[in-house]
Structure formats: structure tokens, C-alpha cells
Amino acid sequence: MARLVSRIGGGGRGSGVSGSASRDMQNVVANFNRYIADIRAAGPEALLAMMEPVKAAADEMCPVKTGAMKDSGFLEIVGSGRDSTVAFGYGRNGYPDYTAVVHESVEIPHAPPTQAKWAETALKNSVGLMAAGFIAGMRKSGVGR
Amino acid sequence: MTTLHPALGIRDILVASSLVELTGWTVQLGRLQDVDKSIAIYDTGGQDPEPALSIDYPTIMIMVLGTANTGYTEAYTMCANIKAALLGIPALPTEYPELNMCNMVGDINQIGYNDNNRPRFTMNFQLITSPEPVGYRESA
């Protein structure tokens, strides 16, 4: 993520600003960078909070015979610091090995509400709510206060 | 009125494309024929359509079966050609004039061999379309 650097007053002849305006701008820059740091710190947890309803909806739609496929669902923070992200899916490491086939086989009927493409459908159905969930997660973490 | 549904529009693009050689391949909508060199295109829902403007965000899935036992590379190559023909296609193609944009969701995905030992691949695409408005929506 970009870091905002104040360049006020650093240009050529005539490009400077008064000392007061420069300090004001430096405050703005400092506040912005603090905000960015807050977002970095809260980001993974906010993403996790945003995705929890998606995972719950996907679990509802996941076909169940033995339960292994549904149990293979995961939602977790991967990595750390600024490189962290959130992973969501089913059949991790290829177990159960039929998960991808069942997910993509739209011609196989399943008892409602279960269905093929359960993870993809949950994501598509939730796109409109995800931004709001992320913002709520950020606020819960104290970002922007 | 006949609706130009996404799977049909995409099939028409592929049939007309110079990037995809379909001779010898079976192409069906909504149902995969379990034969060598078989393609099925499915309408798989999508994201919420716009309520005021006639803009939709449908998704389609393309499933490709190769020749039993030996057709892995052949099927993958067909998928790669389909990807080339669809991804980033300029808006409003003649064969599917409602289509504004075609994005790929993930990439070419092998999901094993089927019961008849045919290699099986899927590809998913997210479309943006602006169909002729019917009902309350206005033209995009």
C-alpha cells in the first residue's frame, strides 16, 4: 500500500507555502499515514469478518453425503503483516478429492438448499454486502476513529 | 421474444471465432454429452442485476471433455483457445451484441477424469451485459 509523503515546500522557486500551511499539511499527511497503518493492522480481521457470512451461506448450500466435504471448508487468515490475506474454500490439499468435481458438476441434482457451485454462489450472492461488511469490520477494529 | 441467454451468446462467439477450431467437437448448451471432444456451456447465475438500468452480471461455465485416456492435452488446448477467444473480447461483438465485457474467474481447471476416462476441464467467466430493456429498467 502506498505511503503518502509530504512534498510541500520542496519544489523550486515560488513553489513554497507558508510555515503554518506547511505544518497543517504535514498534520494531514501524518494523519493519513496513521490511517493507512490502522487499515493495514485491521485489514485481515476485517476481511475475515466480511467473509464469515459468506462461509456460513456456502456451508448451507454445500451438498452433504458423508459430511467430509462440508467439514473441509475453511476460512482463515493466511500470512502475516502487510502480506496477509484471507483464504476461503473447500477440499484443501485435495481432500476430499471429489470436492472440485462436485462443485463444478452443475448437472448433478442436489436436495435444496444444497447445490453445485455452493462456494461460488455464496460469493456471488454476497458481493453487494461484502463492502459494507468490510467497512463494519474496520470500524469495529477502531479504524477511522 | 427469444432471449439471447449468455450461454447461447458465448456459443455463437466461439462458433464464429477464428481462434477456436470446433470441427470434430460437440458443443451443447446446459448438458454435457459424454463423448470424446465434447463441450458444454452452462448459464450459472451471476451477481445481482442492476434494478434501474439494463445491466446484468451473469456467469457462465464451460466444461470440456477430451478424448478418453489420451485427450488431456487436446482438451487443455481447446480450453486455452476458448480463453483466448473470450477473455478481453471487445464490447458488442456481432454474435452477442449484448456483451460488454468478459472476465475470467480463476483459470483453466482440471477436475479429473470422468467415469469413462475422459479428461475433464472447467472454465468460469463473469460477463457484463446490457440486454435490450424489457419491463421497468432503462437502457444502459
Could you give a short description of this structure?
Chain A is mainly α and 145 residues long.
Describe what you observe in this structure.
The complex is a heterodimer of chains A (145) and B (140). In chain A, 52% of the residues lie in helices and 7% in strands. Chain A has four helices and two strands, in the order ααββαα. The radius of gyration of chain A is 23 Å and the shape is elongated. Chain A has helices spanning 19-61, 68-71, 99-104, 118-140; strands at residues 74-78, 85-89. In chain A, strands 1-2 form a two-stranded antiparallel ribbon. Chain A is mainly α and 145 residues long. The longest helix of chain A has 43 residues, at 19-61. The model of chain A is unreliable at 8-12 (pLDDT under 50). In chain A, strand 1 (74-78) and strand 2 (85-89) form a beta hairpin. With 140 residues, chain B is an alpha+beta fold. Chain B has helices spanning 6-16, 72-86; strands spanning 26-29, 38-47, 57-65, 99-113, 119-129. Chain B has a five-stranded mixed β-sheet with strand order 1-2-3-5-4, covered by helices on one side. The mean pLDDT of chain B is 95. The chains are: A mainly alpha (145), B alpha+beta (140). The interface between A and B is medium-sized, with 13 and 18 residues.
How many DSSP E strands of chain B? 5
Strand content of chain A is 5-15%
Question: What gross morphology of chain A would you assign?
Answer: elongated
Please tell me the overall pLDDT of chain B. Answer: 95
Number of helices of chain B: 2
Please count the helical segments of chain A: 4
